[in-house]
């Protein structure tokens, strides 16, 4: 146990030395993602299928309203503390529902998909939508040694360089005309 605590103390000390402040890690205003990322899809039965993120936001809103009511009613402090903990768990689930102690589940016992799970992985937003599919001149290659380059230099094949810098080259040629 001693080594475990010494490790924690050393991490706290390094954090102190870095000049960071703990309140920088607190979110004061919760970001709401665009409805395009968390759509409502109409079904043929007249009902709507909703995104998991909508369900996580709904949970946060309901727990926040419940906390507000508890404050107004003057209910004992321990219940107020429990409500704050529940609200914090809901916010944690929004960012990463898989890593929380009690993940929020659907009625069919499926873990709701959070921000991190919708971004990461092979089917996440980055690899699926933002990085593109097949691209010519993407510049992917195996990193290899070049004896004529310094450590701070990067080699680039001339065809890829011309393709990447085509807009700049055209602009410079137009200026010279």
Automatic annotation (TrEMBL):
Catalytic activity, reaction form: RNA(n) + a ribonucleoside 5'-triphosphate = RNA(n+1) + diphosphate
Q: Single Gene Ontology BP term?
A: DNA-templated transcription
Please name the InterPro entries in this protein's record: DNA-dir_RpoC_beta_prime (IPR045867), RNA_pol_asu (IPR000722), RNA_pol_N (IPR006592), RNA_pol_Rpb1_1 (IPR007080)
Q: Which SUPFAM superfamilies match?
A: beta and beta-prime subunits of DNA dependent RNA-polymerase
EC number in record? 2.7.7.6
Q: Which GO terms describe its cellular component?
A: DNA-directed RNA polymerase complex; nuclear lumen
KW Transferase (keyword) present: yes
Alphabetized, the UniProt keywords read: DNA-directed RNA polymerase, Nucleotidyltransferase, Transcription, Transferase
Q: Name one Pfam family in it.
A: RNA_pol_Rpb1_1
Q: Where is the RNA polymerase N-terminal domain?
A: 23-177
**Listed GO MF terms:** DNA binding; DNA-directed RNA polymerase activity
Q: What does this protein do?
A: DNA-dependent RNA polymerase catalyzes the transcription of DNA into RNA using the four ribonucleoside triphosphates as substrates.
Q: Which family does it belong to?
A: Belongs to the RNA polymerase beta' chain family.
Annotated protein name in UniProt: DNA-directed RNA polymerase subunit
Native organism taxonomy: Eukaryota, Metazoa, Ecdysozoa, Arthropoda, Hexapoda
């Amino acid at each position: 146990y001693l080594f475990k605590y010494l490790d924690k103390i050393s991490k706290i000390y390094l954090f102190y030395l870095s000049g960071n402040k703990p309140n920088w890690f607190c979110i004061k205003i919760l970001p709401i993602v665009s409805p395009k990322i968390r759509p409502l899809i109409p079904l043929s039965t007249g009902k709507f299928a909703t995104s998991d993120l909508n369900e996580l936001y709904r949970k946060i809103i309901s727990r926040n309203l419940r906390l507000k009511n508890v404050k107004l009613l003057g209910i004992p402090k321990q219940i107020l503390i429990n409500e704050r903990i529940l609200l914090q768990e809901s916010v944690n689930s929004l960012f990463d529902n898989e890593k929380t102690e009690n993940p929020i589940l659907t009625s069919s016992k499926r873990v709701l998909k959070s921000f991190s799970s919708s971004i990461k992985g092979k089917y996440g937003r980055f690899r699926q939508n933002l990085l593109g599919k097949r691209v010519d001149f993407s510049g992917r290659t195996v990193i290899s040694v070049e004896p004529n380059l310094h450590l701070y230099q990067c080699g680039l094949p001339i065809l890829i360089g011309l393709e990447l810098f085509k807009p700049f080259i055209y602009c410079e040629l137009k200026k010279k005309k």
